[in-house]
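Worked Example 4.2. Consider the chain below.
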Amino acid sequence: MGLGYPASSCGQRPHDAQQPGEVAARPSFFLTVEVPRNLYSRPYCNAVRIEQLARGATQLEPQLFVLAAGATSEGAYAHAGEEFLYLLSGALTVWGGDDETNQLTEAGDALTFPSNLPHRWRNDAGGETRLLWINTPPTF
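Applying the procedure from the previous section yields the following structure tokens:
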């Protein structure tokens, strides 16, 4: 048991190792911190919840993004670094540069790209979308 899941579940997603009806426990190394809304200046903020998953990380910033139906970045933005997205549920389209479109449509879909590439995103699910979003270096 390293990350809160039995070694016998190696190669499986955490929910695959559960018994029917069980709820997976969150590994103990996660820390949920709601980012204050006043850090945002964009109007979509009420549709976006970001949970910080690590405290004190200096080289990367792992976050859980919870996006309401229809949430969008309201335009492209760019910054220093690199990004990694891992879809947990829902659906997300990410545009990078002028002509690259990436659709994350199934749990487990992933994407990485340089943050200095202008990028924008939209929740394409009919409901909530949840994804792990990691930036390096930290941006918030």
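Confidence is low (pLDDT under 50) at residues 1-20, 22-44. The domain at 31-136 is CATH 2.60.120.10 (Jelly Rolls). Compare this with Example 4.1 before moving on.
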